[in-house]
Amino acid sequence: MSQQGYVATPPYSQSQPGIGLSPPHYGHYGDPSHAGSPPGMMKPAGPLGAAAPGGMLPQGPSPPGPQQFGQNGAHAQGHPPQRFPGPPPVNSVAPSYAPYSPSTQSSYPSPASTASVTQMASQLNAMHINSYGSGMAPPGQGPPGPPSAPLFQGLPRPPQPSIMQPGSQVLPPPPTALNGPGASPLPPSTHRQDGLPGPAPLNAQYQPPPLPGQTLGTGYSPQQAGSYGPQMAGGQLSYPGGFPGGPAQLAGPPQLQKKLDPDSIPSPIQVIENDRATRGGQVYATNSRGQVPPLVTTDCVIQDQGNASPRYIRCTTYCFPCTSDMAKQAQIPLAAVIKPFATIPSNETPLYLVNHGENGPVRCNRCKAYMCPFMQFIEGGRRYQCGFCNCVNDVPPFYFQHLDHIGRRLDHYEKPELSLGSYEYVATLDYCRKNKPPNPPAFIFMIDVSYSNIKNGLVKLICEELKTVLENLPKEEQEETSAIRVGFITYNKVLHFFNVKSNLAQPQMMVVTDVGEVFVPLLDGFLVNYQESQSVIHNLLDQIPEMFADSNENETVFAPVIQAGMEALKAADCPGKLFIFHSSLPTAEAPGKLKNRDDKKLINTDKEKILFQPQTNVYDSLAKDCVAHGCCVTLFLFPSQYVDVASLGLVPQLTGGTLYKYNNFQMHMDSQQFLNDLRNDIEKKIGFDAIMRIRTSTGFRATDFFGGIFMNNTTDVEMAAIDCDKAVTVEFKHDDKLAEDSGALIQCAVLYTTIGGQRRLRIHNLSLNCSSQLADLYKSCETDALINFFAKSAFKAVLHQPLKVIREILVNQTAHMLACYRKNCASPSAASQLILPDSMKVLPVYMNCLLKNCVLLSRPEISTDERAYQRQLVMTMGVADSQLFFYPQLLPIHTLDVKSTALPTAIRCSESRLSEEGIFLLANGLNMFLWLGVSSPPELIQGIFNVPSFAHINTDMTTLPEVGNPYSQTLRMIISIIQQKRPYSMKLTIVKQREQPEMVFRQFLVEDKGLYGGSSYVDFLCCVHKEICQLLN
Amino acid sequence: QNEERDGVRFSWNVWPSSRLEATRMVVPLACLLTPLKERPDLPPVQYEPVLCSRTTCKAILNPLCQVDYRAKLWACNFCFQRNQFPPAYTGISEVNQPAELMPQFSTIEYVIQRGAQSPLIFLYVVDTCLEEDDLQALKESLQMSLSLLPPDALVGLITFGRMVQVHELSCEGISKSYVFRGTKDLTAKQIQDMLGLTKPAMPMQQARPGQPHEQPFVSSRFLQPVHKIDMNLTDLLGELQRDPWPVTQGKRPLRSTGVALSIAVGLLEGTFPNTGARIMLFTGGPPTQGPGMVVGDELKVPIRSWHDIEKDNARFMKKATKHYEMLANRTATNGHCIDIYACALDQTGLLEMKCCANLTGGHMVMGDSFNTSLFKQTFQRIFSKDFNGDFRMAFGATLEVKTSRELKVAGAIGPCVSLNVKGPCVSENELGVGGTSQWKICGLDPTSTLGIYFEVVNQHNAPVPQGGRGAIQFVTQYQHSSTQRRIRVTTIARNWADAQSQLRHIEAAFDQEAAAVLMARLGVFRAESEEGPDVLRWLDRQLIRLCQKFGQYNKEDPTSFRLSDSFSLYPQFMFHLRRSPFLQVFNNSPDESSYYRHHFARQDLTQSLIMIQPILYSYSFHGPPEPVLLDSSSILAERILLMDTFFQIVIYLGETIAQWRKAGYQDMPEYENFKHLLQAPLDDAQEILQARFPMPRYINTEHGGSQARFLLSKVNPSQTHNNLYAWGQETGAPILTDDVSLQVFMDHLKKLAVSSA
């Protein structure tokens, strides 16, 4: 439970240990008493209002835009005076500022126009966040802001004014916040001024958040708040948002929650839409160091100009702090989410293949980094300096080229490895196992033919499907047929191998009953070319369901099955992938035998972690073997009860496979989802027998890795296979100081075997900025990647730590990051004011979603398997997937413009956004729901379902009927668009308002209070704010 | 004598009446018993035997019993218990005797009607690490054999190579087999579990009431009646492929014979204990992995030789032998037998595996290739039928020996295992497999012959009354190939004689042929466990003692030495025995030795004698074919010789004959008689070949031919390079050997016999 305990094990992020601020105040979140009543932290965040920019806590009755402006204005006005009074107690504004501007200069020395503009914009945003910024935002508003800054810092900053201008250009439809200031009514300002002087007294007029105990009764009355004010003790009363009159509501926490306008707190939808509006549909060129890419939710065309596309690598921040002290202070995790095989849209250039001949790729002699744009050629091109380790190497003769007047090789643009961020090398024999070229990989299909699978028709379904899906085995683009060989095994308590050699009249079955020490009974004829053996294979697939039709075997084995597949691949000396279709807890006597240990009593105890750990270490060593032999395991689970996903899923996870789970599989309901998954999984792009190595420039290094990986040592990330949907999250830590001018360079090299059996190296390079200004760091953060990192690190920690501790740590770190910003980067304001950096505006809401995820939620109502399953899914997710997973997409369908092909604008995931007259589509990457309000428009219902009324809708369907009208067509198109980009097929559930299944649906309304616990967004924000305030004091 | 009737030959047909004298006879009182000797004239009786009511005796009513027809009582001639006849015998009288009381029925066979009859079982265990043509030939032989099996017999198929596959025979559409790793030894229980032969657990059955409550045969998947699946099995055999695992240069294929046998044994053990079953192992090379491996897979390490064994250099031998012994014992316990058909140019590990056949009464066949008539016909002959149309094979026999009080049984040598039944007639001294009065013979055929050794226990001071007879009863219970249980009872009696007063009688009743074979069996039995020279020394000593006892001579005068007719051939037998491959390992591989010894320990007297001293016939223009001395002097230029060593039939053309043939005289009409002469031994050889099991190696050679060595190594080397010129005659052919000739041997024997030392 203790902070210490956590620190002992790897923290979520490097900064963990060194809690820059005030440790004592740390983390009460977990404490129920506190959680219950987020004390008066709410302040009338009015100033920023709903405006996205400033993540201020808004106050009560949501005044729509205009009103907020007013408030903002108030702020703006308020500020100057505020500041004058002097740096408020805790925050040392000046220091934080000082770094700020210099960094701006240094980072963007070159006047690359677009980049700088964007940068400016973000700076601007940042400023807004600090409430003082709000005033300045409006384009014309310049004056108030700029002066303020200099004033405070005493450091004359020329850049500032200039920032303003670009900013204004860049933010055409700026978030509401930006608009606000202009209109700002002044009244509040007076209050402000009053308030500012001291933390405690200030409250007088702002409904100060009462102390926990007191709040309820008293804090209520608005205007009288003043009188209560005195009672409010320091830290907690920090509500800067001067609300003059009206907002009595702000006083007490409960009331606050009720009254706090959800529209006034930072909205993820708003952020997404803003980014889409500014950057969507444009070309994003990766030509400069440390530029923050568009959000994952934004569609744009990415052009590789020397840095890897964000589709391959996304970082939590694109500007690393120069020193580890700084990193500790900010506690922002430095991490990259790498998806080396990410699918690239057809309008972007696929990776070039570089062949350096028999010498193999040109590499730095010392650190072995591969030739890349970060290598600096010198001495007329005869030598080059490695950007990573600074070693000076001779250019190999075959690689020599003269330099041009700016010191660039003449062939700079001809060689992908000199001009691009991502490309592939042909690997030579030195890069192959045993120095032999690899064999093409094989797919082995392993079907559980125990009683239940036969009975529910699953075996038949699989066999039928395989006949068609095998036609589409992945192949190299230039090849005519797939080089992948296939093999078949069925099993229950014993294993059945099949000989499907092409010259056989009928398949031969070989039963291996020695499950204790399983082996491969045949070599020739087990793995075959599908085309050649097609008739035998079809014969086999026809026979399998019949063969076991009267089987009454209930018991199954599992570890031996994987073992068998692995041995088969080993015997054939090729990498490959096992597709296992399994349905029950493997209770038969064999290695890896499991017992039902689903003990709900463990929940909420220190032993809860056991539920997430595998039951035996058999699976661990099995996974190790699998990885060693390039055997990837993909598992399709069809459980009807507890099957111990934590144990069964371990091998798939560690071997880079995928786990699919279909609870209570029913043929008519689930087969479509399953078949889609199966097809996708077979057809998707994949690399085998991979080793990934992350190289970094001096001063920092990769220290921790999360994903479907296996590590035998601290640097080589081994993966039996990695496909286009798998991402590895890498955390970095400082070794030393980083220099601002050289930046931070990352090279990710993946050595793998292609589906055609060629050995390749895939290289992704990325350069990041470094800064000694915290503000730069905060400016360059990427919340989606942060959440991805937090989720993976927390889910990994689940194995070792009590969940309560993990939750506390997450909350604390969130608070800490924000507090650090507040303290060091934000302009001085009332201590009680909640100020969020622009780049992290939605961090609280996302963090709350993460905390509410069933994995971290210790509730007996949620099945242990489901939690283990989701835990595992998240571990390999890329940024886009985790974003959607934690904050589902909720689309209004009833307002659909059937003429447009664009997706409708999403709305926030809260019940209050639904309406009885509406129809909504919700998707999180795993599930999809179509929610129908009781008063849904009949014409829509007719259009979509082809039934006359709401009551006629059959909620059993999992696909929408094809009705020939625009509503139906558009809706189905939307569904397919959403589905298209996702690795998992989503099962569509039709939910009618006020019917039982709606409960399930509601769990996905993540801004609301969770069904099984988990606070609402508003509550959580309050809580975080409270934490921050404590930290600041 | 009664050999024809009873299948029994005694070394002594008059028995010395005291223990002391008996031991002085040198050759023990023993007999060669052929339990199932073919008796076309003996119809089995369809009722059960009448047993002596004394529980320790239980001897069977026989012609030697005294019967009181009036009181309806009979006295057991072994324990003298007086027994009531059973109710069915109420009509008995002097004129109305049951068969078992008639003297001509000293051997009688009862058919037991009780008990369920279970079909015979044939389980083929087939090596797939063969050359393509070998495998093809084997496959054809196996397919052919299906038509020879009784239609209701159950067959099963196990194939092995690197892995062991147990084929399921009842499946349609897809051929199915259970596969086992060839390197892992499994217990019977494990094997049965893995094959799914253990009874399903109760809860399962309750869960599925729909299923038939009791499956007909749990093993039905692997063992099926021939008539049901012969098509299937023929196809399956036809589709057998060579072991597909790659064998790299310089390696032997990995062959899991040990595990395959173990699985075969385990399969039958669990499903058909105590019913007649043959496990037929076909192997084309040595086991190279797993339990029972005989040699590693590196070709550069040759398989063990006698030289290695003497040097204790055969790393795998002990372990492998132990493995196969364990299997053999288990098989014997279950009443099954194991045949070994080993066809390869190199050794196949028969030395290690021999006990499988030896202890279970299985056949052992050794050949060069499955693609030879030697194998093909031998294999076919296994399924030959007798005059009744029954297979010449019987299963699961127990042989019980009962003796009168003066005698005890000391042991048996033959294809049997002890059942460890102690009883009053069991001697404390063991000769061969002793310590029991019952043996199990899991597989036997009409020629299977056991040597049974007795001990006279009558004390010198308690003489048997004049004219007293000792009796021995052999009771053989077995499963006939028609699946009936039968009991064959042989009761014989011989006169006692006082060795001091009636030595002539005893001497005259010496059966030197039987004695030679019985002594040879003892010698071979010893040779299995003792050093070769020791055994020879022992044999020599026995021979010398015998000569001392029964020879007529003056002390220290070798020239005066004479033996009576009944002993005259005995020394010569011993001479050839000493030279035989049963005791000499020189020039034989360990496998060959095992093979020869195996057959020696089970063949009947005639065949055994041939093995000890091969028969040599001469064909020439000088007269009809005649047997000639097995001597180098018999090898003449104008003769054709036919030698039968049991294992080989050698036709040898003398120098001149060979030249004539080369010149083609046999094709000239005017020399038709030469053609006939050439043809005559061929026809005779053919006759022998037809009758013999296993089929002998047929060698047709001529003077100077390389194969002539088979002949030259057998004949008495009366002329060698050492004495060639001394003899000076042009007759015969010198043998290049340092072995002593019979003459030298005899001279030494005489010298030693007459010496008083």
UniProtKB/TrEMBL annotation, chain A:
Q: Which residues form the Sec23/Sec24 helical domain?
A: 783-882
- What are the UniProt keywords, alphabetically? Cytoplasm, Cytoplasmic vesicle, Endoplasmic reticulum, ER-Golgi transport, Membrane, Metal-binding, Phosphoprotein, Protein transport, Transport, Zinc
Q: Cross-referenced SUPFAM superfamilies, in alphabetical order?
A: beta-sandwich domain of Sec23/24, C-terminal, gelsolin-like domain of Sec23/24, Helical domain of Sec23/24, vWA-like
Q: Where is the composition biased (Pro residues)?
A: 140-149
| Intracellular or extracellular location(s) | Cytoplasm, Cytosol; Cytoplasmic vesicle, COPII-coated vesicle membrane; Endoplasmic reticulum membrane
Q: Where is the composition biased (Low complexity)?
A: 38-59, 92-118, 246-257
Keyword Phosphoprotein tagged: yes
Protein species of origin: Mustela putorius furo
The Sec23/Sec24 trunk domain covers 438-681
Task: Please report the stretch or stretches of sequence annotated as the Zinc finger Sec23/Sec24-type domain.
Answer: 361-399
Question: Which residue numbers delimit the Gelsolin-like domain?
Answer: 902-974
Protein name, entry field: Protein transport protein Sec24D isoform X1
Its chief place of residence is cytoplasm
Sec23/Sec24 beta-sandwich domain residues:
687-771
Q: Biological process GO annotation list? A: COPII-coated vesicle cargo loading; intracellular protein transport
Query: What does UniProt give as GO cellular component?
Result: COPII vesicle coat; cytosol; endoplasmic reticulum exit site; endoplasmic reticulum membrane
Pfam families assigned to the protein according to its UniProt record, in alphabetical order: Gelsolin, Sec23_BS, Sec23_helical, Sec23_trunk, zf-Sec23_Sec24
Keyword Cytoplasm in the entry? The reply is: yes
UniProtKB/TrEMBL annotation, chain B:
Query: Zinc finger Sec23/Sec24-type domain: from which residue to which, for each copy?
Result: 49-89
Q: Which domain of life is it from?
A: Eukaryota
Q: What positions does the domain Sec23/Sec24 trunk occupy?
A: 118-383
Q: Which residues form the Sec23/Sec24 helical domain?
A: 511-609
Query: A cellular component term (GO) from this record?
Result: endoplasmic reticulum membrane
- Family annotation (CDD domains): Sec23-like, Sec23_C
Which compartments does it reside in? Cytoplasmic vesicle, COPII-coated vesicle membrane; Endoplasmic reticulum membrane; Cytoplasm, Cytosol
- Give the matching Pfam families: Gelsolin, Sec23_BS, Sec23_helical, Sec23_trunk, zf-Sec23_Sec24
Using the UniProt record, give the first listed, main subcellular location: membrane
Q: Where is the Sec23/Sec24 beta-sandwich domain?
A: 394-497
The GO biological-process annotations, alphabetized, read as: COPII-coated vesicle cargo loading; intracellular protein transport
- Extract the InterPro entries matched here: ADF-H/Gelsolin-like_dom_sf, Beta-sandwich_Sec23_24, Gelsolin-like_dom, Gelsolin-like_dom_sf, Sec23, Sec23/24_helical_dom, Sec23/24_helical_dom_sf, Sec23/24_trunk_dom
GO terms for MF:
GTPase activator activity; zinc ion binding
Relate the protein's function as given in its record: Component of the coat protein complex II (COPII) which promotes the formation of transport vesicles from the endoplasmic reticulum (ER). The coat has two main functions, the physical deformation of the endoplasmic reticulum membrane into vesicles and the selection of cargo molecules for their transport to the Golgi complex.
Kindly provide the name given to this protein in its UniProt entry: Protein transport protein SEC23
Q: Which organism is it from?
A: Mustela putorius furo
